[in-house]
Automatic annotation (TrEMBL):
UniProt key word Cell membrane: no
UniProt-listed Enzyme Commission number(s): 1.14.11.33
MF term (GO), any: broad specificity oxidative DNA demethylase activity
Keyword Iron: yes
Keywords: Dioxygenase, Iron, Metal-binding, Oxidoreductase
Name of protein: DNA oxidative demethylase AlkB
Source species: Pseudomonas lutea
InterPro entries on file: Alkb, AlkB-like, AlkB-like_sf, Oxoglu/Fe-dep_dioxygenase_dom
Cofactor (UniProt): Fe(2+)
Bias (Polar residues) ranges: 1-11
GN (gene name): alkB
Length: 227
């Protein structure tokens, strides 16, 4: 007599019986905010060498906030504008203050990913002019903040997660509003805009771990239209 797996009927042959249930590829986390699960995975082979060449020209460094705190996240940028912070405030600049040179051009594969993700979330025609690159080592975090240093908010932010997992906090329009916890994995892309564009958000301290491609770190790209 054949052994029946629990829950499988003898009359049907379930092709996917051995697969764990898969979460939906697109999760909506706000009226105009979406998590595109694994969306960046097909491009990872091209993203990583492109990232390396950007980092040779504009190495990661820890910046200081206007309040005088050194960020636990290390930053770099590429594209026409780079995001910087120092004691005088946050701003987008054309020149990397660290090197005195223009920020590295946005690699084609970065642009390709940002456009495709924005389109998938309904933001057709998004052309970012800034890509902030964040590196989290275990323990690094990003406190709740709003992305509001751009000149306008008509375009979304596209955020790509690579490497170690992280718990993204997605809050409301007031700092004191409660936050949803959204786990982000290697290859996930978050797109938000419209009525959600100015919602508070942050990242909980990244947990110790080793990613097969990126080692002990999480890398995040956030694409924006700064000007
Ligand atoms: C991060 N992300 O995921 C930090 N901002 O490492 C952000 O601050 C962020 O993911 C705006 C939109 C999406 C984001
Ligand atoms: Fe942000």
């Amino acid at each position: 007599m054949a052994i029946q797996r629990k829950g499988t009927s003898p009359a049907t042959f379930d092709l996917f019986a051995d697969e764990p249930p898969q979460p939906p590829a697109v999760e909506q986390i706000g009226p105009a905010s979406f998590v595109l699960r694994g969306f960046a995975l097909p491009l990872v082979d091209r993203l990583l060498p492109a990232l390396e060449s950007v980092l040779i020209q504009a190495p990661f460094r820890h910046m200081v906030t206007p309040g005088g705190h050194t960020m636990s996240v290390a930053l770099s940028s590429c594209g026409e504008f780079g995001w910087t912070t120092d004691r005088s405030g946050y701003q987008y600049t054309r020149i990397n203050p660290q090197t005195g040179e223009a920020w590295p051009a946005m690699p084609e594969v970065f642009m390709e990913l940002a456009l495709a993700a924005a389109r998938e979330a309904g933001f057709v025609g998004f052309i970012p002019d800034a890509c902030l690159i964040n590196r989290y080592i275990p323990g690094a975090k990003m406190s709740l903040h709003q992305d509001k240093d751009e000149h306008g908010y008509e375009w979304p932010v596209v955020s790509v997660s690579l490497g170690l997992p992280a718990m993204f906090l997605f809050g409301g329009h007031q700092r004191s509003d409660s936050s949803q916890r959204v786990p982000l994995l290697h290859g996930d892309v978050v797109v938000w805009g419209g009525v959600d564009r100015l919602r508070f958000h942050g990242v909980m301290p990244v947990r110790q771990g080793e990613h097969s491609l990126l080692g002990e770190q999480r890398i995040n790209f956030t694409f924006r239209k700064a000007r």
